[in-house]
């Protein structure tokens, strides 16, 4: 018998939905790189329903209980008296979603004496201290590619929201007004601008692909340059140094994972080096940027806009300055948890769990850390510095 502890976001305030806006979601069988979307046998949940909240249980209860296993689901995740921390000592598996992260820091690893596997239902395992996971020989896995396209769509939307000044225009309508000049004094066309993607992996390449038809100049940076044929197809030029890229762009879209190399990558000095009136979109992780440097640059006019749906910590406190700063197009962390994305990452979570329960290897694409070191996708995308806490994991 295995105990699985899942930390999921709360249900809608008006209760778990009984009907949905659409009757089905499109059937996607392959990711853009040709790999298969997760499709474990005998899925018994309905694709397109709310699976990421507490009552949705990622569709896992029947599957786990039929196998004689225990499932505990909670949204109560902060502090020593939380359900998460109380249930942790005898959990074999912890599942968490980046939208509502169950932070697994050093102290929590010490308490989790039976833990063997930490699954991120989604992508981005920075809420897990990867050094501590390696010290304790805990496997860390995430559902690679499950919501990369979902996030890319959101980022493209936010690029347009900022440049076109959509949010204030919408507010004028909600408030009964028709103040055209008030909105258009801050509104431009994207056409002709230079857009740069930082960390052009799965999300970043999907952003480039979707922006190409807008007749913009596309540049990107990542750890390793893309193959010439991929660059040609995307119409994007490689710039090795992120500082050089940031100086050239009108719009920067940040998409690398959060780790020691990317933590606070965008600080006041980098923002100062950008063109006045540049925009930044960040749906990757809040701590890629220095929080107050963003607020100051929006207030001074150095940045014309900032959009994102990632914060630190999450949930963001009511007085978080990004809630009230000017020229923002912020959302709570929703980009990777559309109903379409949930169907894929719930299926992928089940695939990982099934492999774990059967004692069969987990897809290398899904692995972040295993047997005391970074593995699979984790070895390609993350860096851990021995003895250092991973940024993003420390939160009470
Ligand atoms: P990916 O692994 O395909 O891409 C990450 C890219 O970043 C890789 O190409 C890697 O080489 C590059 N990179 C790593 N370190 C770098 C550095 N120091 N400088 C430049 N490039 C660097 O992952 P992905 O699917 O594109 O996801 C990327 C990140 O987006 C995740 O780690 C997560 O933090 C975030 N994400 C957010 C959501 C959301 O809901 N908002 C959902 C999914 C993923």
Automatic annotation (TrEMBL):
Its main location: cytoplasm. It comes from Secundilactobacillus malefermentans. Residues 157-335 form the D-isomer specific 2-hydroxyacid dehydrogenase NAD-binding domain. SUPFAM superfamilies: Formate/glycerate dehydrogenase catalytic domain-like (SSF52283), NAD(P)-binding Rossmann-fold domains (SSF51735). Homodimer. HAMAP family: Formate_dehydrogenase. One of its GO terms (biological process) is formate catabolic process. One of its GO terms (molecular function) is oxidoreductase activity, acting on the CH-OH group of donors, NAD or NADP as acceptor. This is Formate dehydrogenase. Belongs to the D-isomer specific 2-hydroxyacid dehydrogenase family. FDH subfamily. It comes from the Bacteria. Pfam families: 2-Hacid_dh (PF00389), 2-Hacid_dh_C (PF02826). Its EC number is 1.17.1.9. It catalyses: formate + NAD(+) = CO2 + NADH. Residues 62-361 form the D-isomer specific 2-hydroxyacid dehydrogenase catalytic domain. It is an enzyme of class 1 (oxidoreductase). One of its GO terms (cellular component) is cytoplasm. Catalyzes the NAD(+)-dependent oxidation of formate to carbon dioxide. Formate oxidation is the final step in the methanol oxidation pathway in methylotrophic microorganisms. Has a role in the detoxification of exogenous formate in non-methylotrophic organisms. NAD(+) binds at residues 148, 202-203, 257-261, 309, 333-336, 381. The record marks 285, 333 as: Important for catalytic activity. Coiled coil: none annotated. It is found in: Cytoplasm.
